[in-house]
């Protein structure tokens, strides 16, 4: 006990043995660390050399006889006058400054490879110039010279099925009925066999479940007699349907023309 702290040991047979023991207790009050919340350190005497450890902040204080003085290198916000590095980087390029890291924080990263697929990538938000769909979906086309009366919303009755891996095409109702839940890429196009007159409004709409418009393209007159559009539709459920409607205000009937690349409806899972 006396090797490290120089506490007094009473001499055998001494009649005043209590004096060195009392001195030991007095010194123990300063040698033993005080542990409490930082805000409570004022409840303890700041004896010279005594140590106070704040259990809530991790800060360490040393008493000077009157006050508790915090060691700057302890606690939640330590500070240092000098820092030395024992194993420095070999080159400047091995060190990234904070400003450089901050600049990279919101930078999009490009990934490629066979391991990237909807099953292996999860994200709250994806930005891309190109959306690549899988081959699980349905594409129909072919409504050559089908009539569309003026001022009447007309469902396009496609005649040809290009692909339909899941048997989703409902020919009787001229619509695609989804059999697997998920996110889908919906694409459509209408090309007029009879060119609309100057100033004539004409457009198509893809509707989900018979009423919700999820895709549309519009034009006026003869500037563009072929309409096309594509967009992702998220959260599609089993049994949801998609069909294509065409409409115009020519004043007389217009017929649909085009080929498989200009008059079509496609619903493909992403």
From TrEMBL:
Superkingdom of this entry's organism? Archaea
Entry-linked InterPro entries: Tumour_necrosis_fac-like_dom
Please name the Gene3D superfamilies in this protein's record.
Answer: 2.60.120.40
In Swiss-Prot or TrEMBL terms, this protein is called Uncharacterized protein
UniProt source species: Haloarchaeobius litoreus
